[in-house]
Every structure is written in C-alpha cells, then in structure tokens.
Design goal:
Elements lengths: L2 E9 L4 H4 L2 E11 L5 E7 L2 E7 L6 E9 L1 H10 L5 E11 L2 E8 L7 E6 L13 E4 L8 H7 L4
C-alpha cells in the first residue's frame, strides 16, 4: 500500500511562475468522488494516469497511481460526470529542499491557485516559499474532487 502525505496552501503571489523549473498542462476528472475510494483519471502532457485515493486522515491517505495509455485516459475523461473535469496548469518549484506543485486552475475555478508539498513524514518541518499563504490541508472544500463539483470556495 502506498501512502500520500501532503500539505496544501493557498497561494497569494504569482512569484512561483518566475521560480518554476517547469510546468505541465493537465485535465483531470473523477470517475468516483466517494471519499473512501476516490478514482481520478488524468492526462498531463499527453501521458495518462489513473489514481485511487482513500479517505484523508489529516495530511495522510492511501494512494495508488498508475500510468495508462493517454488514449484510454482521454476516453475515461469523457465518462466522467458533467462538471467533474478540472483543467489546470501545474508549476514545479524547488524550494527548501522540496519540490512544490503549484496548481493554477482554469475554467469555472479561474483565479484559484493552490500549492502542495509531499512529505515523508506528516510532522516534517517545511520551509515555506514566499508565495505560500493560508494552509488548507484537511479542508475538504479544497480537495480537487470537491472543487470540480462545488466550485471555488468563498
């Protein structure tokens, strides 16, 4: 079993763009939004992925992710319920010995930007980059599976 340990923050400055070492365009959708077994399909720069995630316990949850043919991922995206596909640009920023993923959302979530950092231990110290604002780890309103359905939180 694989564990994902991740902290999530709102972004309050666009300085991450100048700091980024790369970026990827993504479309991702949800075949299941059940919190106990969320099933996500993603196409990122013509590579397909399918991911199953368990329920969050703070910053920790079970996660299994597999590469699949992009044509299969694109076909699965078409099966996703209406409104459950997100479009975003992901910027990769190295800071404080970690790689931060900064997601800039498009479409009905335009203007929302969040930063995530994966950890080996949920109690690990994290040096905060200058673009990071309020922490939203564990706030269900900011789970991608909920953003696609509920829209941008107030």
């Amino acid at each position: 079993m694989s564990k994902e340990i991740e902290r999530k923050f709102l972004v309050d400055s666009d300085i991450y763009k100048a700091m980024a070492k790369g970026r990827r365009e993504m479309a991702q959708g949800y075949l299941s939004r059940n919190p106990d077994a969320t099933v996500r399909v993603r196409v990122a720069d013509a590579v397909g992925y399918i991911t199953v995630k368990g329920r969050n316990a703070g910053a920790v949850r079970d996660e299994w992710e597999y590469t699949i043919p992009s044509a299969d991922a694109e076909a699965m995206l078409k099966l996703c319920p209406e409104g459950s596909v997100l479009l975003k640009t992901r910027y990769l920023v190295d800071f404080g010995g970690r790689t931060w993923e900064v997601d800039e959302f498009h479409g009905h979530l335009e203007g929302l930007v969040v930063a995530e950092v994966e950890l080996d231990d949920e109690n690990a110290a994290v040096e905060m980059p200058p673009f990071v604002g309020r922490e939203v780890t564990g706030d269900e309103r900011y789970y991608n599976s909920n953003l696609c359905k509920q829209g941008k939180p107030e």
